[in-house]
Amino acid sequence: MARAVLLAAVPLSWLLGPQVWLLYVVIALTSAFGMIFRVGYVTAVPNLVGQDRVVVANSRLESTNALAFIIGPMFAGLLSGQLGAATAIAVNAATFGISATALAVVRFPSGRSAVEGVHTLLAGFTFLWRTPVLRWLAMLLTVISFLTLGMTDVIIYQVRAGLGQSDQVVGVVVGIAGGGTMLAAALTPVLRRRLGFGPCWLGSYVLCGLAVGVVALSNDTVTLAVAVFGYSFGLGLAGISSMSLRQSVTPDHLLGRVTSAFWTAHSALAPLGAAAITGLVAAHGARGPLLAVGAVFLLVVLIGLGTPIRSRHPERNGPGDP
pTM of whole model > 0.85? Predict the structure, then answer.
């Protein structure tokens, strides 16, 4: 509901004239509340569906996210073009209000809440460090996040500058990326059940590394679009697998703190990575930086093969000592 109120303040203030400073405040605060929400929903999922259906639930959530990623920007652009940006933001605020109303009727079994306990963030970091598979995931995902945050911008640059395509083609490629994520969400429960965690997670980043290399070397839009589809599929499969494993390994009373610690650890350097990669692309073109990114993906996989991540069922090794 906080994000609904914040976003609603933008079109209301615009009635008196544009207030650009307000945009900076709203963006910062909505991002902060968005992180709180994401931690809360990750913590809530196991309590709502049970541990045996965590992967299926996460896959369905990721499917809806991917669908929203495809439809949302298209609808926002159409609405903004027809009625103005302020109206589009007002509609966005209304969607958050509807979401908050729907969440208000959600009830947890046996009176459980989404976040329990009074553990500090330090307890989350301690649990991460004492649980080998989560410790290695956090370290390797720090590298992955460093590489991936700016990749959408780089792919768009490659489509437009590298291949000389229009904004319409960019939109199609972005839509294809969303399709890759949706397919990953649909197939993750089956792949996790048949292959296990390690092959899914490590195989995903092999696919990502190879796909990024193809994007770097492609000379036609069709090849690039297929590679982007594979890249998005790999990221989706790895992301759902990682989140589901963390939910399975972590005790319920620590899940919120561990999730916060996990995301803090592997996301801290992501903005620096985005700045570095996009800066290199602006200075030297996309091919060289993209080939380097693909090589680092494969290096992460090689490192992961020597860690508990390679196990098909690392959750059976038991959690760390909180």
Answer: no
